[in-house]
């Protein structure tokens, strides 16, 4: 039986689209819902155009009450009964209660070569530090932010004249290759890390 995948995102959803588009043919998983916390995000229409059910849960009315937001998110996810939750640029921090509930089933993509540059503004910080290479990481989600066992990494060179924007664009291309490759393995029960290129 196919694994059921929920994808959570906040922004343009390009990783969400790459994941949805990868789950065809003999892939061991299928997308069952795309969830966004920003109703204005263009990504919801992209998921709908691909025939994937969508749910918008605006976090703003919860005014910082994480537990209340998560309770609605939990009910929403439970209705779609996912085996795997993919965070694809979902820019909310979770309580330990939420993480503990879904632990072992959640994976996340982060735009740095973890353990370097957890948190925000990863590309600017990598450039500031004079790194020769940058990249992205897919990892299991655990209680520590941007931590958890690494399931895959893709590296790109930092080029002369790079700005955070040009570097982000180069890394994003790799995210769209790495994340589907990791999801495919993870859904098949294989947690062996993938290294790209
Ligand atoms: C991606 O670069 C992803 O790695 C990053 O947000 C972007 C979302 O882009 N995630 C984080 O920074 C998580 N801390 P997308 O909406 O086009 O997939």
Describe the structure.
The chain has 197 residues and is α/β, with parallel strands linked by helices. It is built from 6 helices and 8 strands. The chain has helices spanning 14-22, 43-49, 66-80, 96-102, 122-128, 164-187, and strands at 3-9, 29-36, 54-56, 84-87, 106-110, 133-140, 150-157, 194-196. The protein has an 8-stranded mixed sheet, sandwiched between helices. The longest helix has 24 residues, at 164-187. 39% of the residues are buried. The model has no long low-confidence stretch (mean pLDDT 96). It binds glycinamide ribonucleotide. Glycinamide ribonucleotide (GAR) binds next to α1, β5 and α6.
Task: Give a short overview.
By secondary structure, this protein is α/β, with parallel strands linked by helices. It contains six helices and eight strands; from the N terminus they run βαβαβαβαβαββαβ.
Spell out the blueprint of helices and strands.
Layout: E1 3-9, H1 14-22, E2 29-36, H2 43-49, E3 54-56, H3 66-80, E4 84-87, H4 96-102, E5 106-110, H5 122-128, E6 133-140, E7 150-157, H6 164-187, E8 194-196
Parallel strand pairs: 1-2, 1-4, 2-3, 4-5, 7-8
Antiparallel strand pairs: 5-6, 6-7
This protein binds glycinamide ribonucleotide.
Glycinamide ribonucleotide binds at residues 9, 11-15, 88-89, 109-111, 136, 172, 175.
């Amino acid at each position: 039986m196919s694994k059921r995948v929920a994808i959570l995102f906040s922004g343009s959803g390009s990783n969400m689209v790459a994941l949805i588009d990868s789950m065809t043919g003999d892939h061991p998983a299928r997308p069952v819902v795309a969830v966004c916390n920003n109703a204005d995000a263009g990504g919801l229409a992209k998921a709908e155009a691909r025939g994937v059910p969508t749910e918008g849960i605006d976090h703003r009315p919860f005014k910082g009450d994480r537990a209340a937001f998560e309770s609605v998110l939990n009910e929403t996810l439970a209705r779609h009964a996912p085996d795997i939750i993919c965070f694809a640029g979902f820019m909310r921090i979770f309580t330990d209660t939420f993480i503990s509930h879904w632990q072992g089933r959640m994976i996340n993509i982060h735009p740095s070569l973890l353990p370097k540059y957890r948190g925000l503004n990863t590309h600017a910080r990598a450039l500031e530090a004079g790194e020769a290479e940058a990249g992205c990481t897919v990892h299991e989600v655990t209680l520590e932010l941007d931590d958890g066992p690494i399931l895959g990494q893709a590296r790109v060179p930092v080029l002369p004249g790079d700005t955070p924007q040009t570097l982000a664009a180069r890394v994003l291309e790799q995210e769209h290759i790495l994340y589907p490759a990791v999801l495919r393995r993870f859904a098949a029960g294989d947690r062996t890390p993938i290294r790209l290129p």
